Amino acid sequence: MITVAKTAGFCYGVKRAVDGVYAEIEKGNKIATLGHLIHNGQVIAELEEKGVKSYERVSDIPKDCTVVIRAHGVGEDVYKEIGERQCIDLTCPFVSKIHKIVSEHYAEGYQIVIVGDKNHPEVIGINGHCSDSAVIINDKNYVPPPELTEKRLCIVAQTTINKDFFGEIVQNIKKTCKSTLIFDTICSATKDRQKEAEELSLISDMMIVIGGRESSNTRKLYEISKRNCPETYHVETVRDLPAKKTHNKIGITAGASTPGGIIEEVKKAMSENVKNEENFAELFEQYSSKTLNNGDIVEGTVVEVRSNEVIVDLGGFKYNGQLAADQLTNDPALKPSDVVKEGDTIKVYVVGVNDGEGKVVLSRKKVINEEGWIKIKEAYEEGRTLEGKITKAVKGGVIAITEDTQVFIPARQVSGRFVQDLQSLVGDIVNYKIIEIDDRRKRVIGSVRVIIEAERKEKEAKFWAEAEVGKKYEGTVKSITNFGAFVDIGGVDGLVHISELSWNRIKHPSEVVKEGDVLEVYIKDINPETKKISLGYKKAEDNPWEIAKSKIAIGDIVKCKIVRMLPFGAFAEIIPNVDGLIHISQIADRKIGKPEDVLSIGQEVEAQVTDVNWDDKKISLSISALIPTKIVEDKKEEDEVPLNAETLVYSTNPDVEVDEKIEIEPAEEEAPAEEAPAEEEAPAEEDTPAEEKADDAE
Question: What is the pTM of this model?
């Protein structure tokens, strides 16, 4: 039984660097690397065959070459030396993070401590971000000197260092140093790879560790495996494998710089060797009869699904094929395990075959793009509606995936209305039609808008055929203005004026509705020629005057609140949005100059309803009608008070007996208390609330 570690092979940073260099090669650019790109002799040899040479110093790189900074990174002085030259920086993001930590804390006065190999290019690069002043430690028994114990320390780790080793050194430093700031910068992939090597070596009879002799992280894997499994071998290629081994459980892991092709070659060689006990030369000879060429489309069986690639058995060819995650599907949101599973048969396109490295690079996207293109063309010619998932927002529009084919939908075609944030559409499933196709460039342009407009026209035609005043609809608020809200009632928009949104007085429609609200409306008015629709929203049963009509009658005594005062009287709110007028002559039991002499805004009073005109929405109130009557009685001569207009009050209560009724004529210059000057009378106005009448009166 052979088990290959899931974490074996290229880490993210190395794969990024290798892919970046090969991309430049395909473009035909002339490039040179500053130091070996990765610690793998086979990859370096292949790059040299393609014209990519490595140099140790910037000054040695020919002027016509673009400088490539490898994944290990470089110091600040190297960047300065590169200056204005063309440069491609492929420093691993995890290493760049360490550079930032070191640079910032060095500027703050910290002594930088690096746990790692002082001769490793990554450590050299890190040290270059603190003026080469770092203390570099690679001994777990290290004891800090006295001059270091008083300093503030910033401790970082080489990304490929052993985590246990790093922990021991940190503990030793913390015992003697007062101030330590520790950053665990060991790459998570390194930790996972070392952990898996630990676990795998404990259950294996034999361990094969694949990687370059110069690779620091490969040596660490070898040390971990050797500790648990005495029969552990460090090999660079299949040629380094031991000749005869018949173990039952064989574990295989590989360093971060080991190509997947070499791992697959070793795995196949070991499995066949264990099974048939043949020598490797004979084993590989039997696979040499079948050949693959660039551009071939073949069927293969998925034998392993990894996080960043899929391994495909090509049916008899001596190497398995490598299908990178980004060549599996056009949908970047999908992981390899979302697309295929072990045992699936898939069609793949052969991108490249490298016998020297034992590498077959595949692409499934090229196959599905071709098949999808045929289906897209058929849909365009037939005018069919397609369904697609929006996967990303780009300049000027979005990309939708249909049949694993990318379709560009311009911003103006992505909806029936303007969309400010295209990113908000990512993940949506949309229906669209192809409106333009370029067969030569394989370019497709789709439109959601044409479908929406077609549906709207159909709904609009149906609406105008059936619309009539009074008809009710359930509509959606599409937009809000200062004067009202536009509501979609099925293909057409109607306006609910601000005055129709509430029986209460509001300053803006947003006080009542917002975009997206669903309202029950009815057609108040309609003009088929101008296509203008006026909608009603207020319900008659909610009309405060209708509510008042059912609750208030002449003679009722009501509690009310003074809300406004004018020269001829005061308006009092009986119920919300229903006011009554207390004429100045009905405010007190005596003549007053103005309402403010007796009343104040907000004051609550009791008044009697003396008159109601529901058609004109007018209610008359009287406070004086509720003031207790004074009875005039015979008194002794010494107690008699002269009768005059200020002291005499008439009883209007038929149940009260009055000894004598005396009528006092008012002074000629005084106006009757019961009458307001004509010009101050509240004007009658149809369907106008009492408070608005007051506005007009003023």
Answer: 0.41
**DSSP readout, 126-182?**
HHTTTTT--EEE--TT----HHHHTSEEEEEE-TTS-HHHHHHHHHHHHHH-SEEEE
How is residue 295 written in tokens? 């551009």
Q: Do 319 and 290 contact (CB within 8 A), yes or no?
A: no
Alpha-carbon span 214 to 220, nearest angstrom: 11
Cross-strand bridge partners of residue 361: 322, 352
CA–CA gap between residue 57 and residue 81 (Å, rounded): 10
Tokens coding 2: 């052979």
Query: Distance (Å, rounded) from C-alpha 600 to C-alpha 660?
Result: 37
Averaged confidence pLDDT in the chain: 82
- The pLDDT tens digits for 335-373 are 899 888 988 889 888 888 775 556 788 988 888 877 788
CA atoms of 523 and 500, how far apart (whole Å): 12
Residue with tokens 């293909």: 491
CB neighbour list of residue 219: distance below 8 Å, 6 or more residues apart: 234
Residue 233 CA to residue 199 CA, distance in Å, equals: 17
Averaged pLDDT for residues 244-271 = 82
- Residue 694 CB burial class (10 angstroms; 0-12, 13-18, ≥19): buried
Assigned token pair, 668: 């000629």
| DSSP single-letter state for residue 638 | G
Half-sphere exposure of 78 (CA within 13 A, CB side): 27
- The answer to whether the CB of 486 falls within 8 A of the CB of 477 is yes
CA distance 228 to 359: 31
Please state at what angle helix 93-107 crosses helix 12-27, rounded to 10 degrees: 110
237, two tokens: 């290629």
* Amino acid residing at 270: M
Sign of CA dihedral 491, 494, 500, 501: positive
Any bridge partners for residue 622, and if so which?
Answer: 608
Inter-CA distances, 368 with 297, 326, 346, 363, 372, Å: 11, 13, 10, 9, 6
Q: Are 461 and 401 in contact (CB under 8 A)?
A: no
Most confident range (mean pLDDT) of 284-288, 526-530, 616-620 is 616-620
Q: What is the pLDDT of residue 76?
A: 94
Amino acid at 102: V
Those residues with Cβ within 8 angstroms of residue 75's Cβ, 6 or more apart along the chain or in another chain:
124, 125, 126, 127, 128, 129, 132
Count of CB atoms situated within 10 Å of the CB of 425: 20
- Say which range, 28-37, 135-144, 266-275, 513-522, has the weakest mean pLDDT: 266-275
As beta bridge partners, residue 143 has none
Q: Does the active-site annotation cover 122?
A: yes
**Is residue 541 within 8 Å of 503, Cβ to Cβ?**
no
Sign of CA dihedral 498, 502, 506, 508: negative
Q: Tens of pLDDT along 6-41?
A: 888 887 788 888 888 988 888 888 999 999 888 778
- Residue found by looking up tokens 């009073």 in the block: 605
The distance from CA 571 to its chain's CA centroid, rounded to whole angstroms, is 54
Of 46, 122, 511, 669, the active-site residue reads 122
Is beta strand 250-254 parallel, antiparallel or unpaired with respect to 2-4? Answer: parallel
Which pair of tokens denotes residue 642? Answer: 């002269």
Which domains does the chain carry?
A: 12-93 (3.40.50.11270), 94-186 (3.40.1010.20), 189-285 (3.40.1010.20), 297-363 (2.40.50.140), 385-452 (2.40.50.140), 470-538 (2.40.50.140), 556-698 (2.40.50.140)
* Amino acid at site 697: A
**Most distant CA atoms of the chain, gap in Å:** 151
pLDDT, tens digit (0-9, with 9 covering 90-100), for 396-444: 999 998 877 889 999 999 988 888 899 999 989 999 999 988 877 778 8
How far is residue 42 from each of residues 49, 238, 402, measured CA to CA in Å? 11, 12, 40
Smallest CA-to-CA distance from 521 within 473, 581, 577 is with 473
